[in-house]
Write a structure and sequence with these properties.
This protein is mainly β and 157 residues long. The chain contains one helix and eight strands.
Length: 157
């Protein structure tokens, strides 16, 4: 992959806000033929947000899909039909319902490939599990309160 700059650094055009963050980003693109039709992003830590902007190399309208995975489980996908040289779009997702992203796969139906830019992500919050001693202390509270109430009701003669 090579880094290019839009418009004077080897990549012709990009999209415009609000469809993209900027019309002149740094892009990553493969210039050799045939270009890869799939790029897999494997994350070293789970993410709660992942996104990027993509645009096809050719002038035609091309289908591009970004799939989000938690391990081997597909948790969501985004598909756009984009026109090359003026059609970059944002592909981004927020993990919900306890899911995280450990991998994302970007694919296109066109063998000439695509360029990408403006990557964004957020690390998933670590799930904290209470220690057994903490759970025991939490359980002792209601038990102690119940014992105190029981002592007040029982009268010793």
């Amino acid at each position: 992959m090579q880094a290019r700059t839009v418009p004077d650094g080897g990549w012709g055009t990009w999209g415009f806000p609000p469809d993209t963050e900027s019309s002149t980003p740094r892009t990553l693109v493969t210039w050799s033929m045939p270009n890869p039709t799939t790029r897999t992003f494997t994350f070293s830590q789970p993410l709660s947000i992942f996104g990027l902007e993509a645009e096809p190399v050719v002038f035609n309208t091309v289908n591009i899909t970004l799939e989000f995975y938690n391990g081997d489980d597909l948790v969501g996908s985004i598909t756009h039909d984009l026109r090359g040289l003026a059609g970059a779009r944002l592909f981004a997702a927020l993990a919900t319902d306890g899911d995280v992203f450990t991998k994302a796969v970007l694919t296109t139906t066109d063998p000439t490939g695509f360029g990408t830019a403006q990557y964004r992500y957020a690390l998933a919050q670590a799930q904290t599990v209470p220690e057994p001693s903490t759970l025991a202390l939490i359980a002792m509270g209601p038990l102690g309160f119940g014992y105190q109430q029981l002592r007040r009701r029982v009268k010793v003669l």
